[in-house]
User: Which sequence fits this backbone?
């Protein structure tokens, strides 16, 4: 790895590619995130009801998703907006897993809730607004569950990697990084999707990276294009908001795809995902990454 990167990300030594000989593959039920299979995580922004969630779970699974997303504890921009179903939402997610076999990713917002959410979820999502909450990260790390770490909307790549380092330092190697858009001077879209950030992350860390085009775009029409860009940039998976009736969703309807939109997008992405597979095959033929000599010194 280039010397300059090493210095730039010096606070996150364990997440850098030089710290390990191999890429991290995060085991989630029968899945391997960061492995050969591209993993799509999809579902509603918020869990609204048992019926809603079950219908979505079946539809996203048949379109190719492997993980069901859904918020039970919701960080909302307005304190008056729907805050999530809480424990009831977690139970509905677990029931959807039992019926469909999909793994569950859901957000944990507070340190206090970690044991409860960890009991039901297969992956704990740390939201953008919580990325720098180190006491939450520590508690989530110690739960032993894989962590989906979303980039803060005003966080640099170095900030994101520092947060990932906190999880690794607390004994949990299973971190999936998520690019979900950052705030810039552009206001036409909800956020600015940092595709270059994905490419950079894939070059400097051994951790899997997933792209969240839904929160990046804020508009459903843009989601398929950003998903393609995310795959082309090297992401290992996608996080997509899907709702049967987006205009009446309790949260983030503007950016949610309906079933037809999601199914069509997944079909359109197939050749792009196949290209990623071919590139990974080529990477494997190359020499494995050697441990950077400066890390070797630090580790001995
Ligand atoms: C979400 O995934 O619904 C969410 C709240 O995401 P973020 O933390 O990226 O805003
Ligand atoms: Mn959302």
Assistant:
């Amino acid at each position: 790895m280039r010397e300059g990167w090493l210095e730039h990300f010096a606070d996150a030594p364990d997440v850098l590619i030089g710290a390990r000989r191999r890429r991290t593959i995060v085991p989630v039920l029968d899945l391997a995130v960061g492995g050969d299979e591209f993993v799509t995580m999809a579902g509603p922004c918020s869990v609204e009801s048992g019926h809603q969630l079950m219908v979505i779970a079946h539809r996203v699974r048949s379109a190719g998703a492997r993980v069901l997303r859904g918020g039970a504890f919701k960080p909302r921009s307005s304190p008056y907006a729907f805050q999530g179903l809480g424990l009831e939402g977690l139970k509905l997610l677990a029931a959807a897993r039992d019926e469909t076999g999909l793994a569950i990713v859901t957000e944990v917002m507070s340190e206090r809730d970690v044991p409860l959410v960890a009991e039901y979820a297969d992956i704990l999502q740390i939201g953008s607004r919580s990325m720098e909450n180190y006491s939450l990260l520590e508690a989530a790390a110690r739960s032993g569950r894989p962590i989906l770490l979303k980039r803060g909307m005003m966080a640099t790549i170095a900030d994101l990697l520092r947060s990932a380092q906190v999880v690794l330092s607390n004994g949990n190697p299973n971190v999936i990084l998520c690019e979900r858009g950052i705030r810039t001077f552009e206001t036409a879209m909800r956020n600015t999707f940092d595709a270059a950030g994905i490419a950079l992350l894939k070059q400097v860390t051994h951790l899997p990276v997933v792209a969240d085009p839904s929160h990046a775009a804020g508009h459903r029409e843009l989601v398929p294009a950003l998903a393609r860009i995310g795959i082309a940039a090297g992401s290992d998976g996608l996080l997509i908001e899907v709702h049967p009736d987006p205009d009446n969703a309790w949260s983030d309807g503007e950016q949610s795809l309906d079933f037809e939109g999601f199914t069509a997008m997944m079909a359109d992405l197939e050749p792009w995902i196949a290209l990623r597979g071919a590139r990974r095959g080529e990477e494997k033929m190359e020499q494995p990454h050697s441990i950077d000599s400066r890390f070797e010194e630090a580790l001995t």
Remarks:
- The pocket of phosphoenolpyruvate (ligand 1) is lined by residues 45, 71, 75, 127-129, 150, 180, 215 (CB under 6 Å).
- Residues 287-292, 294-300 have pLDDT under 50 and may be disordered.
- The two ends are 19 Å apart (CA to CA).
